[in-house]
Amino acid sequence: MRELAQGVVQPLAAEVDREHRFPVEAVKAAAEAGLLGVLIPAKYGGAGLDAIAFAVCIEELAQACASTSVIVDVHTSVGSEPILLFGTEEQKRKWLPRLASGELLGAFALTEPAAGSDAASLQTSARRSRGGYVLNGTKVFITNIGHAGMYIVFARSGPEEKAAGVSAFLVPDDAAGVRVGQLFKKMGLRGSPTGELVLEDVEVPKENRLGAEGQGFTVAMRALDSGRIGISGQALGIAQAALDESRALLADRAREQGDDFLLADMATRLESARLLAYHAAWLCSLGRPFTRQASMAKLHSTDTAMQIAIDAVQLAGEVGVTAGSPFERHFRDAKALQIYEGSNQVQRIVIARDLTRDITR
Ligand SMILES: Cc1cc2nc3c(=O)[nH]c(=O)nc-3n(C[C@H](O)[C@H](O)[C@H](O)COP(=O)(O)OP(=O)(O)OC[C@H]3O[C@@H](n4cnc5c(N)ncnc54)[C@H](O)[C@@H]3O)c2cc1C
User: Fold this and answer.
1) Catalytic annotation on 341?
2) For residue 346, which atom of ligand 1 is closest to its CA?
3) pLDDT tens digit sequence for 317-331
4) What pLDDT does 119 receive?
5) 3-state secondary structure the chain
6) Is the pTM here over 0.85, yes or no?
7) 343 in ligand 1 pocket by Cβ < 6 Å?
8) Distance 336 CA to ligand 1 centre (A)
9) Pocket test for ligand 1, best of 69, 123, 141 (most atoms within 8 A of CB)
10) Of 78, 299, 339, 351, which is best to mutate to test ligand 1, by the most ligand atoms within 8 angstroms of its C-beta?
11) Confidence of residue 361 (pLDDT cuts 50, 70, 90)
């Protein structure tokens, strides 16, 4: 992983960021190395590894290039894993080998303009038709937009309010009525495309519904549980890269004790975040409950990455704030992690809900 990340992915990172360019070579190399099917069992063409391996892979990628890590992370976790967890045998055979090989990139389309943190308020509709459903609506801030071959789309299929009326659908990018809307330019993670997915009278056969009708919100929440392990991996990678830049900088100059204290705190915080993330991944790998731990890992590791990136800019001084320096790139890249796959406020809601649900655990 490290050879691939440092040899192929890292040399592209500055250019990908500067040009807002999809790192096509990096994603191709990741596919050739079998990285796009890390969580997919061997019988469907994947590597059949566990959540710990997944977290480590994403961490190594993020250390090299945060944009590439988001693309691979979203594809591997929320963009593919739900088929493994909720798909029929037919759906698994149809989609997983193509996702594992990288022939198709996966994406996850939940967020809407008026449904971000409150995802259960989504309004995209899935009207029943003779052969299945007709989807209408607009999803926003969708990672891998325009490059994905398949979107897992969440839409309202019933009259029930909030979460109960939501179903999940596998929507190929070339289905009639699917188009890319506005693309969003971001402060960081600029090589990872983000934009609108517009659905206009998109006919989806009932074979493409993922899980039971009305089970869509459960699909989304379970996908996000393990997705948060991937985001933790991203945070660890960005933080490690910022820490390593700081170590190299301080090794080369006369240091004050204040520098040493800051460096020691950065490394200690990173190690604690790493242990929390690996622990959540370990619980997930064992099939034990891990929702709370994944949220704790996501909350702590992304806050840690942001703080370490800020500290690294501070240590580097004017070099740190200069456009094009790795310090300012890590600083810009770290921010979105505190927001996506459930903002860090939402993680606190998840943690508190879990803590008060069953006080014996
Ligand atoms: C780079 C990037 C990539 C993304 N990729 C995807 C993707 O692939 N697929 C997808 O579906 N979505 C994606 N998203 C969307 C992301 O999941 C949402 O941005 C996120 O859920 C927050 O929603 P919002 O931006 O609408 O913020 P809002 O929900 O409007 O929240 C704004 C602020 O209010 C706070 N807040 C909201 N509700 C509460 C509350 N009850 N208590 C306390 N504070 C609250 C939030 O924490 C946040 O700080 C992506 C976002 C980004 C930035």
Assistant:
1) yes
2) 47
3) 999 999 999 999 999
4) 96
5) CHHHHHHHHHHHHHHHHHHCCCCHHHHHHHHHCCHHHCCCCHHHCCCCCCHHHHHHHHHHHHHHCHHHHHHHHHHHCCCCHHHHHHCCHHHHHHHHHHHHHCCCCEEEECCECCECCCHHHCCCEEEECCCEEEEEEEEEEEECCCCCCEEEEEEECCCCCHHHHEEEEEEECCCCCEEEEEECCCCCCCCCCEEEEEEEEEEEEHHHEECCCCCHHHHHHHHHHHHHHHHHHHHHHHHHHHHHHHHHHHHCCCCCHHHHHHHHHHHHHHHHHHHHHHHHHHHHHHCCCCHHHHHHHHHHHHHHHHHHHHHHHHHHCHHHHCCCCHHHHHHHHHHHHHCCCCCHHHHHHHHHHHHHHCCCC
6) yes
7) yes
8) 9
9) 141
10) 339
11) low
Q: Which atom of ligand 1 is nearest to the CA of 143?
A: 8
Q: What is the pLDDT of residues 1-31, one digit of tens each?
A: 999 999 999 999 999 999 999 999 999 999 9
The pLDDT tens digits of the residues spanning 88-143 come to: 999 999 999 999 999 999 999 999 999 999 999 999 999 999 999 999 999 999 99
Predicted pLDDT of residue 245? 97
Q: Which domains does the chain have, with CATH numbers?
A: 2-101 (1.10.540.10), 106-214 (2.40.110.10), 217-357 (1.20.140.10)
Atom of ligand 1 nearest to the CA of 115: 26
pLDDT digits (tens, 9 = 90+) for 266-298: 999 999 999 999 999 999 999 999 999 999 999
Q: Whose CA is nearest to atom 1 of ligand 1?
A: 336
State pLDDT tens for residues 225-260. 999 999 999 999 999 999 999 999 999 888 899 999
For a ligand 1 pocket test, name from 123, 340, 353 the mutation site with the most ligand atoms within 8 angstroms of its C-beta: 340
Catalytic hit among 59, 81, 196, 341:
341
Which is the closest atom of ligand 1 to the Cα of 349? 42
Q: Is the CB of 151 under 6 A from ligand 1?
A: no
Q: Mean pLDDT over all residues of the chain?
A: 97
Hey, whose CA ends up nearest to atom 25 of ligand 1?
116
Q: Calculate how far, in angstroms, residue 117's C-alpha sits from the geometric centre of ligand 1.
A: 5
